[in-house]
Structure formats: C-alpha cells, structure tokens
Amino acid sequence: MTDVHRTTGRRPGSVSDLDGPSPAETLDGASTVEVRTTASAALIPTIRAVASDLAARADFDLDAISDLRMAVDEACATLVDVAAPSSTLQCTFLVRSERIEVRAVVQAGHPDAEVSTDTFGWRVLQTLADDVAVSHEPGTGGAGPTVGIRLDKRSGDLPR
C-alpha cells in the first residue's frame, strides 16, 4: 500500500489540486509531498520515482535528479533495514525551486536501533546529497522509537 499526499495550501480534494500549487498558494514558494508505504525494499522504487519526478518538475539538472534519486534509494534502504516488521516508511519531500529536502522515517524494530554512519552506504549517501543527518526519537504511548534520515539536494549549478 502506498499513499501520496500533497500539501498546497488549498482545501483538500478541490479540483484545483490537480493542477498543482501556484507560488502564491505555497509556503515561501515550496510545496510538500508525502509518501507512505510499508517499510519494504520492494516498494522503494516507488519512492525513488516520486523523488525523480519532483526534481524534474522543479527543473533540476540531470545530474542533480540522478543524485537525488540514488540518495533517496540509499536512505530508504538504510531505514528499511532497521524498521519494525509492520512499520510504515514515511517520506516527506519539501520542494523548492533551488533544492529539495527529504525526510524519511520508520518505526524501529527495537529500542536501540540506530542508523550506522560508518558504512560504505552512508558514505555514498553523503556524497550524493548536499546535507545529510540522522534522527532517533524515543517511543511514546506504547509505540517504539522512530529512526529517520534527512537529506537536502540542491538543483545543480546555480546561475552565475
């Protein structure tokens, strides 16, 4: 199961949601897209495709689109490895004309689950993204802890 939600500042379900946001209807010219899937490696290509599409629509150059796509893939794969069996992988994309910020989160499989930052995959992720950070939040209300990765990718060469 995959859910995609886009926040545009309009009333949800309005016909104009299909056209996408206009700059005046978004916060600081940004729009937000959220994708939720079962935390499964088989569903990562869906999230990767959303990342590519969003970057292309924001006029990122081809290298930046490719880098973002691979970074999202690596971040999601890393999180799926530490996710609880019934966890949801939630990815939120904050899209601006010059950069995309991605936040991916899963409920961890055990209380001391952490994202390892001393692996080859983590080094690749740091190379592909312009900024990367890990988060770990303790569980509340009977829910287990959450583990997340935030990454930023700029659109490419800035005009000179």
UniProtKB/TrEMBL annotation:
> Where is there biased composition of kind Basic and acidic residues?
150-160
Presence of keyword Nucleotide-binding: yes
**Upper lineage ranks?**
Bacteria, Bacillati, Actinomycetota, Actinomycetes, Pseudonocardiales
Pfam families assigned to the protein according to its UniProt record, in alphabetical order? HATPase_c_2
What are the UniProt keywords, alphabetically? ATP-binding, Nucleotide-binding
* The UniProt record lists the keyword DNA-binding: no
Q: Where is the Histidine kinase/HSP90-like ATPase domain?
A: 38-139
What is this protein identified as?
ATP-binding protein
Where is the stretch described as Disordered?
Answer: 1-27, 135-160
Question: Entry's InterPro entries?
Answer: HATPase_C_sf, HATPase_dom
Output the Gene Ontology terms for molecular function: ATP binding
